[in-house]
Amino acid sequence: MAFTLFGGTANGQLKVGDQAPLFTLKDQDGKDFNMADVIGKQPVVVYFYPKDDTPGCTKEACSFRDAYNEFTDKGVKVIGISNGSVASHKAFAEKYHLPFTLLSDTDNEARKLYGVPKTMMLPGRVTYVIDKNGKIIHYFNSMTGATKHVEEALSALQ
């Protein structure tokens, strides 16, 4: 799998006002998704989650699915990222009818760029809201509040 990573820092979790790092990862269909193609065109919600098809991650993904029209009505692109494989993401998206992009970060490179910490020995659950110009306007870090990530993102977009 090829990764192209631009900018960013692995020195800690990004914060409000930071420029969102650019990256290229494979989506659930095996196609390259380049963050640089989105920045400058529309706001983005990027949510990092631990693992496909687990109870908390399924709740979170289904919450984003159920609120998807609220995001698209605001012109926002929703992207989920975990270290699962392209095949795992495809199965997860099909099983739960997820209408948004899932990206495979098998080497945790994007996770490192965004400084997403581990929580309880698992890859962390962090959501970033990024404005059209690529600035982070909100982030939310909560391993146990899986469904709260959607509320936080929508609130930040008001």
- What is the CA-CA span between the terminal residues? 37 Å
SSE order in H/E notation?
A: EEEEHHEHEHEEEEH
CATH class: Alpha Beta
Q: Specify the structural class.
A: alpha+beta
Q: Which range does the strand content fall in?
A: 25-35%
In one word, what is the shape? globular
Q: Unreliable segments (pLDDT under 50, ≥5 consecutive)?
A: 1-11
Provide the CATH superfamily.
Answer: Glutaredoxin
**Number of discrete domains:** 1
Q: Work out the helix count.
A: 5
Mean pLDDT: 91
CATH topological fold name? Glutaredoxin
Structure write-up:
GO terms for molecular function: thioredoxin peroxidase activity. Belongs to the peroxiredoxin family. BCP/PrxQ subfamily. Monomer. The protein has 158 residues and is of the alpha+beta class. It has one domain (7-156): Glutaredoxin, CATH 3.40.30.10. The chain has five helices and ten strands. It has helices at 55-66, 68-73, 86-95, 109-113, 148-156, and strands at residues 4-6, 22-27, 32-34, 44-48, 77-82, 101-104, 118-119, 122-123, 126-130, 136-141. Strands 1, 2, 3, 4, 5, 6, 9 and 10 form an eight-stranded mixed sheet that branches. It has a two-stranded antiparallel ribbon with strand order 7-8. Helix 3 (86-95) links the parallel strand 5 (77-82) and strand 6. The chain is globular, with a radius of gyration of 14 Å. The model is unreliable at 1-11 (pLDDT under 50).
